[in-house]
Each structure stands twice: as C-alpha cells, then as structure tokens.
Amino acid sequence: MTKTHSQIETLLxxxxxxxxxxIGEILIRGEFELLHHADADRSDLQFFNNPEDAREIAKxxxxxxxxxxxxxxxxxxxxxxxxxxxxxxxxxxxCFYPAMPGVLFAxxxxxxxxxxxxxxxxxxxxxxAVTKKISNKQANELIAGFCRSxxxxxxxxxxxxxxxTPVTSLPPCKFDPAANQLGQSVLAIPLLCHEACNLLVxxxxxKVKSE
Length: 211
Ligand code: SF4
Fold this sequence. Notes:
Elements: H1 3-17, E1 22-23, E2 26-29, E3 33-36, E4 46-48, H2 53-57, E5 79-82, H3 86-96, H4 100-108, H5 117-122, H6 136-146, E6 156-157, E7 192-193, H7 198-210
Parallel strand pairs: 4-5, 6-7
Antiparallel strand pairs: 1-2, 2-3, 3-5
Helix pairs in contact: 1-3, 1-4, 6-7
Bound molecules: iron/sulfur cluster.
C-alpha cells in the first residue's frame, strides 16, 4: 500500500468518524457496508463482498443502459457490498466514483490543481478544437443542462469558465463542497470536479457545431 493510499484511508476514516457516511448515492453503514441510500430499509439486497464488484454494480443503470458518467445520479439499487477494512472501502469507492477519493485528498491538502473551462478547451486538438469557439453564454447553457445535479452529474464544480467568469447557470450549492448534491440535509463526502470531463468537452463540440 502506498503512503497516499493510507493517507486517503485515514481521511475516509476521519470523515466516517464525524458521521459523514454518504458519498454520491451511496450510504456507508458500520464497518463497512455499502448500499444505495434509497435501499436503507430493504432486506432483500443482493450480497457482494469484493471491492472490485463495485465496478460491475456501477456499470449499468436500472434499465440496463451503460453509465458513461459514473457520477451521474443513476446508480442502480438492489445491492449491498460488505467490505473488510478501510483499504477495501477506498478501493470500492474508487470503482464506484473513479479517482474521487484521491481528488478529495488532494483538495484537503490544498494540492488540487483546478483547471478553468477555457484552459481545458484551449488544449483541445483535432475534432475537438472547435470547442474553443464556444461563447460564455453557450457554455453556461451547456453546463446548466449537462452538469446539473438532479439529472446530470453529482460532482461539485470547482472550476470557472475563465479566471474572471464564474458559471452562472447553476445554483450556488453546485459549487459548494459542503453541500449534498442530492439536495438532502445529511452531510456527504463531496465528489469534486476540478476540470471539465471529456463528456462535457464532447457536448461542447456538439453545441458549437449545431449552432
Ligand atoms: S464537467 Fe464535471 S460536473 Fe460536469 S458532467 Fe463532467 S464531471 Fe460532472
């Protein structure tokens, strides 16, 4: 186990100790049972006990469609994943929400590099180079639909359109790591977006080309 892995596990343990036992749509009970938060009262859940099982659970939504964006609010219900220790917990969370434990740790250490949207788009080449042409208004419209927490993505956005231009088309809680993106009052471990994902870049291309 690397030093960083053990530090991430220490961070997870501290959060759980403080009663922060939700991440995305997942509820973490005891040491350590993971399930969809909507399944908290169910007793007929399918049992898993390998952290790698999280990858399969997270692959398809309730209707059997592939989930290209693992932080979309469409994690399926009906399962329970029981893990032995913090090491397995970190591994499983990394499968459910790829890279998110490490990104959170970097953020907590003030070592997370946040990349504004313009910088991400200005780096694009080939078929995505056209995304450089997106206007701030188009970007705001796109982000409002694509990144919204209720049917887009549960990440908390840390970037801006550029250094002087915040995203204005989503509510302030979308940018607040202390806010639960499910709109619930319980505390949650945040899923942090420090740079626009490839899916948003692809959608920006479509937006520019269609207009
Ligand atoms: S850009 Fe970030 S917040 Fe938006 S969909 Fe992609 S990962 Fe989610």
